Amino acid sequence: MLSLKKNDEIEITIDALTSEGSGVGRYEGMAVFVRGTVPGDRIIAHIIKTSKKYAVGIIDKIITPSPSRIESDCPYSQKCGGCSFRNMTYGEELKYKKSRVRDAVQRIGHIDIDVEEIIGTDDLNCYRNKAQYPVQICDGELFAGFYAYKSHRIIPCTNCLLQPVEFENGLEAFRIWTEKANITSFDENTGKGLLRHIYFRKGYATGEIMACAVINGDSIPQAQLLVSLLREKVLGLKSVVLNINKKNTNVILGDKTVTLWGSDTISDILLGKRFIISPNSFYQVNHNQCEKLYSKAAEFADLTGSETVLDLYCGVGTIGLTMADKVKSLIGIEIVPQAIENAKENAKINGVENAEFICANAPDGAKILQKKGIAPDVIILDPPRKGCDASLFDTIEMLSPEKIVYVSCDSATLARDLSVLKEKGYKTERLTAVDLFPRTPHVEAVALLCKAEK
User: Fold this and answer.
1) pTM above 0.90, yes or no
2) CA-to-CA distance for 66 and 73, rounded, in angstroms?
3) Engineering a disulfide at 342: which of 93, 247, 316, 358 sits with its beta carbon 3.0 to 4.6 angstroms away?
4) pLDDT at 2 > cutoff 60
5) 80 belongs to the catalytic site
6) E strand or H helix at 405, and its extent?
């Protein structure tokens, strides 16, 4: 009978990782989760939580370090909930991410397929083109950073290694403004206070920067002071906006955005196409890896120029428009109105005349096409983390495309959806993992499904 309890100290070997990047070892058959460990570590773990099926520990002592263990180059990584793998060689990280995609597809989707070689990166740092910093202002001093693991406790960090230096300079502008303008920060408990988040976006190929203050109000004091500070400190600044979010919610952005200075949007160039990006639009956070991901999706689609392609969950049109030169016609569907407007503008500025964009959720948009008698040859799926809407699969079956290219940011929901599509007559032919989020537990994947012969 296992009698593991809180404050026990046990010796275990870490032999696996969870989807959140915690190490897993076993003690008398029970799984023990320990953050900050690497497969191959032999440790003494101090138990901080137990249940009937598992225990949670923290590192008390590393007896024998894993051959894959390295010294973290970030002083915040053990406290922040972001980079789980800064104490691990990049080779081991890629090995884990590839196996995670493979294991999910086999275990959840019951699909036996070899995962092709994972597509890694040359840039482990400064790759993110977007950052959303929660803030807290105490005695006039601004604390901005990221939430600690599984909490809303802010770990102050203005020089995150994943972010470009322009964001750090922008935070300094906000710090001076909050002090001089006596700005208060939003309190989740009371619903009072003005500044909720500081938000930056960058066009990596263009160098254009957007700075955004997310506020619990309609305006800010000394707005021109903030603008002048940002213009002074942020190279490439093109846009300063306010996002209005008065709701008692943990959703970061509200629906309304007001431009204080410059443009309403910024732009970036992806695979030779220029894209307009607004504050609420989805856009992949890693420019260079995104190009590799979309190139792999195009390779899987194997387009000849005669196809009608349906891009569901199209966002600002990035995936579809990068393939538009290789298709007969492109149709994009997206539920966010601002993103659809961006997609139409993106098509126009790139001279793409064979594209149409429809504002609707994916199932309803697919039904619109079905009623029009439009039968796509290829469907591209790039859903949010929760995967595809269940009602979408029947419509896909009726549209009956020859190929489906599925881009996913969550291997568990990908596996589930591949299983459903298998029941609808589609066989997963190819599968690749792409590392868009180095040093974090997240991994992207792209799958090719073809209509099975009856």
Assistant:
1) yes
2) 17
3) 316
4) no
5) no
6) strand 403-408
